[in-house]
Structures are given as structure tokens and as C-alpha cells.
Amino acid sequence: MPPFKAVIFCTTRDYKIPVTTLYDVERAMGMSWPNKSADSYRNAACILEQAKLGWCSPRAAFDAFVMAAREQGRIVDCRRLRERVAQELASIEPEAIRPERTTQLFGHQIRRRARVAAPVSARARFY
Predict the structure, then answer these.
(1) What is the pLDDT of residue 122?
(2) What's the whole-number average pLDDT of the chain?
(3) Contact (CB, 8 A) for 35 and 71
(4) CA–CA separation, 60 and 62 (whole Å)
């Protein structure tokens, strides 16, 4: 299980990477950003270095990264994907989801047998 809830980071060159660990945060901070001289970016980079050295929690570094990325519009909203999947599921006809069962397979009848539990003999030993 990843330590943080995954966010999708989009660089200025349209590369999309999931960020779930402190290593991913460091990798994303090194990629292309619209404005690396912004205060939020510089603060996030400083907090990331402190987290790597153990002076603050990794959670603080992740939150600073997310705040800086949202300020510059680099976080992809995951809600759009959920809405797209919901629309695709809604477009499927109900008959295609659960087709009615047929008893014929390739033109042949399927023989269905009732399962009957075999009686266990008294002499049977289980090891």
C-alpha cells in the first residue's frame, strides 16, 4: 500500500506520472514546471530536502508538493476519469451486461447433473 493517496502530476511537456511516495515527489520536483522560481515550489523543494534528512515528516513534504502543483495547475483531477467510466458504463445496454442463460452451446444440449454428496463410509480415516 502506498504511503500517500495517489495524485497524477502532469509536467509542462504533458508527461503524466502518479505520485505516491517521497521518491516520486523528488522525481516530479525535478521535472519541468511552468515556474520553478515560485515561492510555493521553492518551499516544497526545501521541505522535501528536510524530509529526506529526517527533519520533518514525509507527509508535510507531500502536502507541500501537492499545494505547489495545484497552484501551478499541474495536478490532473482524478474525478474526470471516474465520470468517464460512469458514462461508459451507463452507455452499455442492460442486455449486454447480463445476457440470459441459454442451455445450448454450439447447437448441442448441455447436460446438467445435480450434485449429490457421496456418503462417507464409517471406516474412512482422514489424516
Answers:
(1) 60
(2) 78
(3) no
(4) 5
